[in-house]
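Internal QA ticket QA-208
Title: Verify multi-chain structure generation after dependency bump
Assignee: T.L.

Test input:
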Amino acid sequence: MSVNITLLVVMAALFAAGIYLLLERSLTRVLLGLILLANGANILLLSTGGRAGEAPLYSEEIPADAYSDPLPQALILTAIVISFAVTAFMLGIIYRSWVLGRRDEVQDDMEDRRVASQSSFDAEDDADVPEETTEFTPLEEAEEAPGSQNAGVLDLSADPKEPR
Amino acid sequence: MNIASYAPLAVVLPFLGAAIAFLLIRHSRTQRAVSISTLSITLILELFLLQNAAVHGATAVFIGGWMPPFGITLVVDQFSALMLVISTAVSLAVLIYATGQGIADGDEDGPISIFHPTYLILVAGVSNAFMSGDLFNLYVGFEILLTASYVLMTLGGTTPRIRAGVTYVVVSVVSSMLFLIAIGMIYAATGTINLADLAVKLGEIDPSTQMMLHLMLLVAFGIKAAVFPLSFWLPDSYPTAPAPVTAVFAGLLTKVGVYAMVRTETLLFPGDRINTLLMVVAILTMLVGILGALAQADIKRMLSFTLVSHIGFMIFGLAISTVVGLSAAVFYVAHHITVQTSLFLVTGLIERRGGTANMDRLGGLAKLSPVLGVLFFIPAMNLAGIPPFSGFLGKLGILQAGVELGSPIAYVAVAASVLTSLLTLLAIARVWNRAFWRRPEDALHPDPVLLATNADGSAVHSTRPPANGSASTESASESSDESSDEATGDSTEPVAGRQPANVLPRTMVGPTMGLVGLGVLLTLLAGPLFEISDNAAQNMLDRTDYIEAVLGEGSAP
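Actual output:
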């Protein structure tokens, strides 16, 4: 099978531009990058179908190089429909993101930032174990027991009758 | 007529149900009935398919009478039938849970009415991917389930969901694009996209071309399965979605990626050329995932990281590529779908009962709601692989196969699996200690809902008699209000505004119980299940069963 050099160059250009745009932080550019990538993939599929200009027919008598393979074209049609739907959905998301926050950017995951910035000391795991951990001590003593990390909170709710 | 010829109904029925549910968008009661009964019928059909596959092996259906390798082929063998049954059973439980949540929240005709049709389309896509007999149909199946998942992920369109949705959509589209490019190249190299035909023809092409096609497919599927270097998107996007949606994503979507990897490794590119690479990837996935889980404060995020980590077990089993290893991996996939989904559903219940899924703010749930404690404890221990649960059996199988293989890297992977199991237990114990066992007052920033419900818990739950009559209860609730004031630094308004859900709706607890029960049932049925998975592994490594089912007798190489 001979490869169409024009299609090859166009495909390479589409992939290169698509990947470049994909690495941007602006959502619209990311979307444009995805569209270019999808078209590059479609051209790749098209170039697997053989030489341009032949009719896509199949019959036992015709030699294989005298007709264009119809299957890649069917695949491309499906792929186009799918990328169309995804593009429409992405546009919807981008618009929503703009409406909500006036931001057309990929945003950081705040919870991830928070987890990354937390100290390695964890009050629950690493704090000194209180000497008396039983819950059956008299309440007056329990309030003064050391080590309870939020003893302040307990003091404020100091009510001997509070049910535990 | 063989039951297997009705296999396409497993895809068609959910689609039909989705169409009807979409028409009934204004009649939520009928809509619910339609979607639940559709999935139930599909499940019954798939049980017959599994029974048929267990007896007769692989069967193929040629859509529209187009003979392979030209037409669309659906193939049901033991592995895909097992996946179909487990996935539909789990989706049905999640659907009932989500419906129960909708009823409990009273959103009779909110925007959520789009949930049912989309959900059914997701199930149809998953079924299509599991049965697909050619690469392009597999791609279409992926796209169906992904497009449905985009909608479910951004349901409601709130800021965090849109943010997570963007990452998720872009990553998924890029992986689909890689898959499409790989399909184009495979077609250029072999002239066919039928899996059985490819299994015959791919062996004949140049080994270096084979390697490139192989790796491209694995990268595309690896992104979907969230295998380590490609798993970055999962913990970022999953936790923001609604609880039932996260549950079904965690259970099904990554497993479809694992399924596709298994097919690639066994059917398309048999042999052990990249098994060492897979083994390294499996080790890294397990360790990095579980270390990430240990750092999280949010239970949903913690579970997302354990999800990534346990994908490593399946990849390890796949990389061993002996009958024992593969069979254990198949069993582990079935086990993990059930257990991971039930854990996410339970987290949804925790969020509902405690007001938050952040374990720094939770406490005392074991006392407030013992049912919730049991529901969390069983699948959690199952996930960590404590005997006698099915997680233990699956891990044991994988470890045995790894030791049998006996190569140095296999021993490293065995050690990594054991370490990961222990660290999973640690991660689970962290949640248990914080959310369930400590008193709510001991939490760093206790949720006002918890404090309030705890103070008048005696009135609501009557787990113990009121200490000193009604007067003291009153003063206690007052004092507790004060303490929550001081603890959170704001007024008690959140409590009044958020309405503590003291009693968990039965419609949500029921399906969760069912799913937890299914997880336990997998332990009881481990014998027959291992029989099926052994058979499936045998046939997948042998390949003739699959190829001959599609291409006819004597066509296997």
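Spot checks passed. The two ends of chain B are 30 Å apart (CA to CA).
Status: verified.
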